[in-house]
Every structure is written in structure tokens, then in C-alpha cells.
Description:
Mean pLDDT of chain B: 87
Largest sheet of chain B: 3 strands, mixed
Shape of chain B: elongated
Distance between the termini of chain B: 19 Å
Strand content of chain B: 15-25%
Oligomer: heterodimer
Structural class of chain B: alpha+beta
Helix content of chain B: 25-40%
Order of helices and strands of chain A: HHEHHEHEEEEHEHEHEHHHHHHEH
CATH architecture of the largest domain in chain B: 2-Layer Sandwich
Number of helices of chain A: 15
Distance between the termini of chain A: 87 Å
CATH topology of the domain at 50-198 and 212-225 in chain A: Rossmann fold
Largest interface: A-B, 27 and 39 residues
Strand order of the largest sheet of chain B: 9-1-12
Low-confidence stretches of chain B: 15-27
CATH architecture of the domain at 50-198 and 212-225 in chain A: 3-Layer(aba) Sandwich
Low-confidence stretches of chain A: 1-10
Radius of gyration of chain B: 25 Å
Helix content of chain A: 25-40%
Strand content of chain A: 5-15%
CATH class of the largest domain in chain B: Alpha Beta
Amino acid sequence: xxxxxxxxxxxxxxxxxxxxxxxxxxxxxxxxxxxxxxxxxxxxxxxxxxxxxxxxxxxxxxxxxxxxxxxxxxxxxxxxxxxxxxxxxxxxxxxxxxxxxxxxxxxxxxxxxxxxxxxxxxxxxxxxxxxxxxxxxxxxxxxxxxxxxxxxxxxxxxxxxxxxxxxxxxxxxxxxxxxxxxxxxxxxxxxxxxxxxxxxxxxxxxxxxxxxxxxxxxxxxxxxxxxxxxxxxxxxxxxxxxxxxxxxxxxxxxxxxxxxxxxxxxxxxxxxxxxxxxxxxxxxxxxxxxxxxxxxxxxxxxxxxxxxxxxxxxxxxxxxxxxxxxxxxxxxxxxxxxxxxxxxxxxxxxxxxxxxxxxxxxxxxxxxxxxxxx
Amino acid sequence: xxxxxxxxxxxxxxxxxxxxxxxxxxxxxxxxxxxxxxxxxxxxxxxxxxxxxxxxxxxxxxxxxxxxxxxxxxxxxxxxxxxxxxxxxxxxxxxxxxxxxxxxxxxxxxxxxxxxxxxxxxxxxxxxxxxxxxxxxxxxxxxxxxxxxxxxxxxxxxxxxxxxxxxxxxxxxxxxxxxxxxxxxxxxxxxxxxxxxxxxxxxxxxxxxxxxxxxxxxxxxxxxxxxxxxxxxxxxxxxxxxxxxxxxxxxxxxxxxxxxxxxxxxxxxxxxxxxxxxxxxxxxxxxxxxxxxxxxxxxxxxxxxxxxxxxxxxxxxxxxxxxxx
Lengths: 374, 325
């Protein structure tokens, strides 16, 4: 796969061909027809790049760092050519009053046009004093900024529902963005860290169609979080055959058996990890692929809530197709060939019988005796 | 030698009375259940806890040295459709409509584990003419002795659960059925399927404890999270528990009363009929057969009456013949 960091033209610019390849790949990720890639490319290369304000609350900056992983587009291409990242505390060039001033200016200039991305949870206890930026409570910053944004995206599990900071006993009263901005549509991209492609695809979708992708009841884009990990896991055949790793490093674990008994939360977690893996980190690059049970980071109430090695509930999964039905049909009925063969045999027997009877009569007649009645 | 009819009848009746006086009162009274063997071991299968992983089937085949049974075109892996000469434990799947939710009869699905129920009063044991199938008087496990078996397959016809299977493809066929891993029990271990079950859906233990556990589950509030024992209870192993959400049970423990009770008990969230378990009377078929047998043969009166009548008729015929000649 081409890498934007290295596959550039001698002038250091990305070739048009590579750029279109990237956009087509993004379209395919979202389940759009590949021809949509051209439209995505057009949207991404508008003269004025879409402004993005990126706020960081109670988080570890892992979500920002996860943007380093994708190769198409690479981070520098994303922030320099595709979007205008007007404010991000990790990547800001300026600092202090300068950065804050620029953020204010950008918000005023792009009123109702910029995309707000929130990373990290929002403390709400005691008026939200446990996270302050530039002397202002983070909860107020988010509410204020969201009111002026075109779309709000909560990236990472902390922003989506509270994540780690909200884990019991939750001393700061940490909450996710959808809870703080009740009534506002918030796209959540949970994950710890989230898959950068799920984020990029959502942004590109919004830029292209000027609307948000289809979301589930937790605000997650359905193209990425629509399916259960357990249903698409490469180790599922082992589960269906009852082959489990019982402890780390045992024979089953080395043979790549199902990690359900080690506490894998795949059966209760919705995400596309087994399908697209983690960014461009290489083959098998997702927890289960490396031999570690899924811990349910994209699922509220699972990740950071249920202990790592507690066995998951396999409640609502599609039963394996190969499982024996209650009633088993015995035999396969009569096949056409067998019926034909049987028919032929009956025909031959009937014909032979008729001929024999005929000959018998003829013989009797020849010898001058009257033909016997059958 | 000639016996006078009168003398014969006298002797026959006298003998009959004598036999009747000695005759053992084996038949059970109506409604009376045969008692569990003192150390009855069994399995409690809870379909609401079963996740359909089939690890019990894998463990069963390993423990009982059974061959792989491939039923698909590619012959890749073990996927029996039913119990057979190669499979003595099978997880089956009930599906209805969209099969969206577990333990729901409409648009739902459920699993069910089928193997020998180890009846308290087993029909197969009664039907077997050579005592190849016997019920262990201590543990109650119904075991099979291939050296005694004559291959009549009466046990297959007698079993109300359609469990014993015959090795049709073998030149030296045997009857195969679950024997509760009798060889493992002898070593103080538990049935392989229960040892392998990751959720506690198959639970090994003394039948009385299993029945108490099943009754406890029926009292739990559906939707709440409760601890369920895993692998075994009362089998000398440290207790292991897992927390599961309580499903809405069908308020019936299958096997508690069916055909006089079984040592394998089942619980489910959908009707047992949907899971292929027959609706059976509480009275065991053995008891019914016994009742008829004991009624007819009680004190040998009726056979002797019939015998007497026959002899009388023959004698009369002979007499008539003699007269004619």
C-alpha cells in the first residue's frame, strides 16, 4: 500500500494519482461505491479547507496520536492539505494567549461551518473545575464551542461516554460529550485508541455529502460500528468448534485458538477491528490478532467497566450455520438418477414378463394345445 | 400315565396358591417413583447459559476416543447432524424466524444438548435381553457391555429419547451412547463435557444437588445478575462461579418427572417440545410393562390356569380320538 509519507513526487507534493487512490480507498471503507472516490477527492481539495477545532479534555492524547498511524492520508497531508486544523493543543504551533486568540478568530470566521472534535472526557462535578483550559472550565468551553459548530465529533471512548476517567468511583464526575451536549447530534468514534480511519472516513463523508453518516443509537457511524466483533473475528471458527486458549502461552493460545475463556469481549462489542485492523500497522494488527482478548473499548458498559478477564456474555450472536438442527432428515429422498434406474428396472422386468407370457402361449399353440389363461 | 382332570386341577390350584404366597411383591404401586440410586450422578444442562460453542462435543470425543464425523462436502471438521455411531453428545440448534434473540420461541433461538438421560428406571435396561445394558446400582449410570451385546437393538426401540445408536458401518458393531464418562468417574473426575463447558451450561454433580440448583434457578428474578456454578457441584472440586443474567425460564425441569425421572436434567427458555424433547408421562414405561407382567404372572396363577385349560383341551381331544378309534 502506498504511503503518503514516502510516496511523494520529487517536489515533495502528493501525486494526483496517489491522492485519488486514497480517496477511493476511503470510499470503500465506508461502503460507498469506489467511484465516490472522485467526489471525496473533490470535496477534500476545495480551495478553502474545512476548519477543524480540536478540544482536549480528560484524555491521554492517544486519540491524537492514533492519527499518526494511517498512511493514507498521512498526518501531515491531513492537517496541511485536507483540513485546516485551527486549534489542537498537541499540534498547535503557537501557545498560550496566541493559540487561544487564534481559536476565537477561527470560530468567529467559520461560524456554523467548522467541525468540532472533542477528545477526552468532560468533568462535571463541582461545576467542572477539574479540567480548565485558559482559566475556563472545559465543560463550558465545549458547550460554547459546540453551539457554533457545524458538526460535533467525539473521538475516543472518553469523549464518547466518559471512558477511563468515568470509571468507578469517577471522582471528577466525568461524562461524555453526548451527555454534556444533550439534544445535539454528536458523532461518537469510540475506541481506545479509536481507529483513525473511522474518524477520517466520517470527516470525509461529512465534507462530501454535507451530512453525517448513518448513526446507531449511541451515535456511532454504522459503517464502522454496525457489526459485532465476534461475528467477523478470524478466530470465530475456533469458537464454533469449542477450541479455546485457557491461559496465556498454553498450547491453545500458541495455536491461535479462540480467546473467549481468557475474557475476550468480542461477543459483546461492536466495531470493525477484525475487518480493517488498526490503521496501517500491518497484518494481524488488532488485539485478538496479536493473541490478546478484546477488552471492549468501543462499547459503553464493557470497556473500563467489566474486568479484563471476566468472561463475556455471548447472548445475542448469530448461531453458527453448521450447527445441527433439532430435526434431522434421514436419507436424502429419491434422487432423479435412482428413480430413473428403478423405473428402468421395473420396465425391464415388466417387459420380460410380458414376453415370457407371450412365448409361453406361442409354445402352447405350436404344440397344438390351447393357450392357458393366465 | 393318566391324570384325572379333577386331580390335576387340584394340584395346579394348590401349587398356584403356594407360589402366590411366596411371590415377591416387585411391582410398584401406582404413582410411586423408583428411588434414586444412593450416589446418583448426573448432569444439569441449562440451555439459557449455553452459547453453542460445542466445546463439550470436542471434549466428549476426546474423552471417549470417538472418530470425527464430517457431514459437509469438504469433510473438513467434525459436524455431526445428530447422535450417531460416532457421536454420543450433540449440541443442536433451534431457530425461529429472524432468530434475533436467544431463549425466545418466536424470532429467537436456543441450543439444546442431547445425550443419554440416564433414566432412573431405564427402558433400555429392561428391554435388553442379555443385560448388556445395566444401571449401576450405586451411581445410576447406565453402562453398556459390548461383550454381552447380541446386536438386537431392542434398546434403540425401547428408548423414549432416541439415544442408543448402532454402528451400522462397522463389521463388529456396538451400541454407542453416553455413559456419563464412567471411566473418568472411576478416577474421581467428572464427565468431560462438563469439564469443558465455559459457561456452566453443563453442570456435573449428585442428582439431588442438581435438582435443588435447578429449582433455585427457577426462583431467580429474570434480568438480574446471579452467580451460577461452573463445571461441577458436590463432586469434590473447589466451587467455581460465574455471573450471568438470569433468563426467563420455562418453569419446568425436564427430567425431574419424565418417565419416572432422569439423572440428566434440562432447563430452557423455550418449550422443550421445540427443542426436540418428547412430552412424556411421569410414569416410566418400565413400570407400565412391569405392571402388566406382574399382574399376569402374579403367583403364576394365570399361566397355570391357561396351562391347565390347554392340558384339559388336549386331553379331551385325545379322549375323543380314542373313542372314535
